[in-house]
Amino acid sequence: MTRSISILGATGSVGEQTLDLIRRNPEDWQVEVLTANGSVDKLARFAREFDARLAVVSDEGCLPQLRDALAGTGIEAAGGREALCEAAARPVDITVAAIVGCAGLAPVMSAITRGGIVALANKEALVSAGDVMTAAVAKHGATLLPVDSEHNAIFQCLQGNRIEDVARITLTASGGPLRTWTLEELKVATPAQAIAHPNWSMGAKISVDSATMMNKGLEYIEAHHLFPVGLERLKIVVHPQSVIHSMVEYRDRSTLAQLGPSDMRVPIASCLAWPKRMETPMAPLDLAAIGELSFFAPDEQRFPATRLAREAIEAGAGAPATLNAANEVAVAAFLAGQIGFMDITVVVENTLNRYSAPAPQCLDDVLNVDREARAAAREILEHA
Question: Which among 76, 161, 246, 315 could disulfide-bond with 319, CB atoms 3.0 to 4.6 Å apart, if both were Cys?
Answer without folding.
Answer: 315
